[in-house]
């Protein structure tokens, strides 16, 4: 192996050069909000109240994806959006499971209850 004396060559930046007036890439603030709402939806999913933040997170994620696409790559945060969406879906699934379990428990309790009014044996 031989080494050459002198300065090391600098690799050119990947991709086409940026125009000086182009904005710097910035993480979308909606991406953080989607993650936070998705986390709240997942944590409170078993209590039916998790449906509201999870639904808002999914609607906000849709808007954030549109804005990121329209920005031409200057809005980042796709990983936060994916995580937030998955947490929101988890919250919705947990809420659906809680509703189904509640209905099953209610039906079983209704089946165990006596039908009609229960009179004493000596009443006509």
Descriptive report:
There is one protein chain. The chain is mainly alpha-helical and 124 residues long. The chain has a domain at 26-109. Helix content is 56%, strand content 3%. It is built from three helices and two strands; from the N terminus they run βααβα. It has helices spanning 29-43, 51-70, 78-112; strands at 26-27, 75-76. Strands 1-2 form a two-stranded parallel sheet. α1 runs parallel beside α3. The termini are far apart. The model has no long low-confidence stretch (mean pLDDT 86).
State the shape.
rod-shaped
> Count of helices?
3
Helix content: 55-70%
DSSP strand content: under 5%
Enumerate the spans where pLDDT stays under 50 for 5 or more consecutive residues.
none
């Amino acid at each position: 192996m031989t080494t050459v004396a002198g300065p090391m060559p600098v690799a050119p930046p990947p991709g086409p050069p940026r125009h000086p007036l182009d904005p710097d890439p910035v993480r979308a603030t909606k991406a953080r909000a989607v993650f936070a709402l998705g986390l709240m939806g997942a944590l409170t999913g078993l209590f039916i109240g998790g449906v509201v933040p999870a639904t808002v997170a999914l609607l906000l994620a849709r808007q954030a994806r549109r804005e990121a696409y329209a920005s031409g790559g200057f809005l980042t945060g796709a990983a936060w959006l994916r995580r937030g969406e998955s947490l929101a879906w988890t919250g919705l699934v947990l809420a659906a499971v809680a509703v189904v379990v509640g209905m099953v428990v209610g039906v079983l309790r209704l089946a165990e209850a006596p039908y009609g009014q229960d009179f004493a044996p000596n009443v006509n």
